[in-house]
Amino acid sequence: MGKYFGTDGFRGEANVNLTVEHAFKVGRYIGYYYGRGHKARVVIGKDTRRSSYMFEYALAAGLTASGADVYLLHVTTTPSVAYVIRTEGFDCGIMISASHNPYYDNGIKLINGNGEKMADEVTDQVEKYIDGLLPEAPYATREHIGRTIDYAAGRNRYIGYLISLATHSYKGVKVGLDCANGSTWMIAKSVFEALGAETHVINNTPDGLNINTNCGSTHIEGLQKFVKENHLDVGFAFDGDADRCLAVDENGNLIDGDLILYIYGTYMKKRDKLTTNTVVSTVMSNYGLGKALEAAGIDWLQTQVGDRFVYECMRQGGHMIGGEESGHIIFSKYATTGDGVLTAIKLMQAMLDQKQPLSKLAEPVTLYPKVLKNVRVTDKDAALNHPAVQAAYQQAQQELEGRGRVLLRKSGTEPVVRVMAEAADEADCKKYVDSIVDVMKAEKLIVE
Are the CB atoms for 43 and 81 separated by under 8 Å? Predict the structure, then answer.
């Protein structure tokens, strides 16, 4: 990770540590970088945060000043930006969103011409330009100055693409949608109604300040209650930019990303569509997912945390499905990013094709109790690699082998080491987490 750009773009509080000047400079450099030798074409989407308009105009000003033509999708989802880029020949794209964060945060996600997160080599150059460590990019003049084009048609084509992927009519199915007052506030309803569902929607009245506020995939309890009270067949909750989806079964129970991976992974295997016989997740996925996949005869690969790393693993290995517990699910045949609405469509396919409710499809998975402690330390690497800490970690791993696991990793953004244990007995989880944390305390590695 760089100074500004992390695993999910340049994120910060709007006009505090992510300012319009930052956005303008990002636009200036990207317009210059992709415009060497030809007029660059860049597409921009945004979520419903109040500050997204400000950043949209600042980015567009920087891009056009460097000579790029800018195509505005307006309020749309992150996966729609990736789709439009790769299917319509754009040089790159930008999504303005802080995903599941509160409204006062925002972010700039840079996406390359293949619809994938932009390479570190490019974002490193953008960071140097922001900090004045590169020469000033030349301004375009006269007929070379760029222009902005309203491109809502691109978003509409994406909606058509989603509808085309459905294999069944949803007629007679009662579906709940929690749009998180974010990017799906119009898109999700349009898709499900076009497919014939009896659609019940909550949190689809964005005002610029209520995105993700007690709603969406980070506050799933609202949709759980809504599904039960209205006797719905299924519910889907998205986050602010709709690259995540969590589901709720007909009984109001959470179907998280791990269960989604199991349900669709096993469905693909039954139809001989799981070509590498592998499901990819991160190290944070539940131990129970691995046990259930093993019982189903499916291989399980784990990456470091971040959907970016999941996608890289999938691309390198040719794997068809991967994702995170949080609901970033990637179907590599159809998308280069997590796509919440696509995930909902795929879950509907698995349900309707197998004529089973989500509760039944998730039944073979027993999710293990988990205890996670975030330990604030003086030095992450020193704490993680301390011989006494490593010895306690190895001992816990050995004692839990075959019936659980321990995970020790550092945070990518905070001076924190995360200690996690999963086992059939929650008391065991606590015991092994505490055994490692106690060693950190004894070695004076923790900030008191």
Answer: yes
The DSSP annotation for 1-59 comes to: --SSEETTEEEEEBTTTB-HHHHHHHHHHHHHHHTTTS--EEEEEE-S-HHHHHHHHHH
Provide the edge-to-edge strand list for the sheet that holds 370-376. 370-376, 416-423, 404-410
> Among this protein's residues, is 66 annotated catalytic?
no
Cα–Cα dist 443/124, whole Å: 37
Question: Going by C-beta distance under 8 Å and a sequence separation of 6 or more, which residues neighbour residue 225?
Answer: 252
CA distance 154 to 127: 29
Q: Which of 51, 66, 99, 281 is catalytic?
A: 99
Cα–chain center distance at 30: 23
DSSP letters for 377-424: BS-HHHHHH-HHHHHHHHHHHHHHTTTEEEEEEE-SSSSEEEEEEEES
For residue 413 the two structure tokens come to 């953004």
Q: What is the CA radius of gyration of the chain?
A: 23
CA distances from 157 to 42, 58, 81, 85 (A): 17, 26, 11, 12
pLDDT in tens, 308-339: 899 999 999 999 999 999 999 999 999 999 99
CA gap 343, 321 in Å, rounded: 11
pLDDT in tens, 151-200: 999 999 999 999 999 999 999 999 999 999 999 999 999 999 999 999 99
User: Pick from 301, 242, 296: which is nearest to 264 by CA?
Assistant: 296
Q: Please state, in angstroms and rounded to a whole number, the distance separating the CA atoms of residues 216 and 203.
A: 8
373-387 pLDDT, tens digit each: 999 999 999 999 999
Contacts of 124 (CB under 8 A, 6+ apart): 2
**pLDDT given for residue 376 in this prediction:** 92
Q: What is the mean pLDDT of the chain?
A: 95
What is the pTM (predicted TM-score) of this model?
0.93
**Residue 1 scores a pLDDT above 90:** no
Mean pLDDT confidence for 46-61: 98
